[in-house]
Amino acid sequence: MEPDESHCIDTEKDFPDLAIEVFVTSGGINKLEIYRRLGVREVWFFKNNQFEVHHLLAGEYIQVTSSQVLPHIDLKVIAQYTLADQPLKAVKEFREKIREMGD
Length: 103
Known about the structure:
By secondary structure, the protein is an alpha+beta fold. 31% of the residues lie in helices and 26% in strands. The chain is built from three helices and five strands. The mean pLDDT is 88.
């Protein structure tokens, strides 16, 4: 099984810190259980046009309202750009927004 996206934070590891899954349909295997066994710290599901965040705590996933792995990320903003009609324009606007946040 491979996530739609996965990332190691700070250092390369055998398994990522963050896995991102995009749901187009419902059903399928219990991906959280697989990620739990691998020790993936956080899983984001993008479904119904929003992110659902699950953080691994004491060996079990709990649903949280924001990322614990990337606490400064505003998932509502990312979802907004993910749904944009013009992807290239959205990427440019998102990059500009990130720059503004850094100032």
